[in-house]
Amino acid sequence: MKIAFTTNDSVHINAHFGSAQQIDVYDATAEGYTFLEALKFQGNLKQDGNEDKLVPKLKALNDCTIIYVASIGGGAAARLIGKNITPIKAQSEADEIQDVLTRLVQTLNGSPPPWLRKALLKSQPTQSQNPFEEEFEPLEEEVIV
Description:
The chain is α/β, with parallel strands linked by helices and 145 residues long. It has one domain: Nucleotidyltransferase, domain 5, CATH 3.30.420.130. It has helices at 55-60, 74-82, 97-109, 114-123; strands at 2-6, 22-29, 32-40, 64-69, 86-89. A hairpin with a 2-residue loop joins strand 2 and strand 3. 22% of the residues are buried. Keywords: Nitrogen fixation. GO terms for molecular function: metal cluster binding. InterPro entries: Di-Nase_FeMo-co_biosynth, DiNase_FeMo-co_biosyn_sf, NifX, NifX-like, NifX/NifY_domain. Belongs to the NifX/NifY family.
């Protein structure tokens, strides 16, 4: 699953979601984690209540399961949750990305809490978008006219 972190230095979770100029994305599994990319954002990213600036971030994070932030506004959190992305506030801006990822991998190897199991299920691709769709074998019919 893809995990994102708002950061100013690629080490700590130390940026507010709305004003973050960088979001680092990792792939995390029970086997470990891998850095994927650093998403960069420019323009007017001030914490001013203007939620239009969130659109590029929401699009860029579309396939992420969890995002760790130093802080986040209520509107932005609701929009992330609406896209099945779970926002998590870091305990402090001194929290290091590598430490959080290591603890996450340990949790995935143990007994993940219900919220994480739910997030994991959301991150797994579904085989069919239509729950009523079934697989049928083709039938051959003889038509007599």
